[in-house]
Amino acid sequence: MNEWMRNRWVVGILAAVAVCLMVYQFWPHSPVSTRRTTKVAGKAAASTKAKSAGATGSGAKESRASTASAAEKAAPVQPADRVYLAEHFDLWRDSPKRDPFGGPPPKPKRRPVQDIPPASERLSIKAVWLQTGQKLAVINGQLLAEGDRILDYTIQSIGDDHVWVVGPLGREKVPFELGKSSAAKPAGGSSTRSRSNRSRSRR
């Protein structure tokens, strides 16, 4: 051993190896050590963020739960109005069913007013009886009284020379044309108009 230590070549090699080891250990800007340090620091920062996020989420959940419980305690539950429910139950039960997803029902189509002729063109008065307590008229071959219906019209009133009807165009007056009509004179003192009366007035 002493012989090796006395050899200056061996001593020089050992000194060079020792210097290299010291330089390798204490070299601060080594790329390998820098990468390892960066990875370790990144993992530590990620774990810290995850822990803080978990703590924040749990704190938010606890605050929401406490807020909801406080709101439930603050707002009292009001009981249902039993009288109102009892009064409207039959109406709700008997109401027609309607599709909540469907639109409003279509409106019925009305016949245009301009296509409806006047009542004087559809009704023909042949005779009129004006008796005490009763008024009759022969319209389109039917003996009708006040309140009767014919076609789309209701007989409202019967006069000496006209008849008032109510139809699609509202209230209309249908004249009693003597030249196109004839009337009979019933017993009991009733007043009538006919072609014979018109001929007498001309004489």
Structural class: alpha+beta
Distance between the termini: 181 Å
CATH class of the domain at 120-175: Mainly Beta
- Which residue ranges are poorly predicted, with pLDDT under 50 across at least 5 consecutive positions? 30-34, 179-203
Strand order of the largest sheet: 4-5-6-7
Q: What is the CATH topology of the domain at 120-175? A: SH3 type barrels
Largest sheet: 4 strands, antiparallel
Report the count of strand segments. Answer: 7
Shape: rod-shaped
- Secondary-structure arrangement, i.e. CATH architecture of the domain at 120-175: Roll
Order of helices and strands: HHHHHEEEEEEEH
What does this 3D model show about the protein?
The protein is α+β, with helices and mostly antiparallel strands and 203 residues long. The protein has a domain at 120-175: SH3 type barrels (Roll), CATH 2.30.30. It is 46% helix and 18% strand. It is built from six helices and seven strands; from the N terminus they run αααααβββββββα. The protein has a four-stranded antiparallel β-sheet with strand order 4-5-6-7, with no helix packed on it. The protein has a three-stranded antiparallel β-sheet with strand order 1-2-3, with no helix packed on it. A hairpin with a 2-residue loop joins strand 2 (134-139) and strand 3. It is rod-shaped. It starts with a helix and ends with a helix.
What are the key terms here?
203 residues, 46% helix, SH3 type barrels, rod-shaped, 6 helices, disordered C terminus, alpha+beta
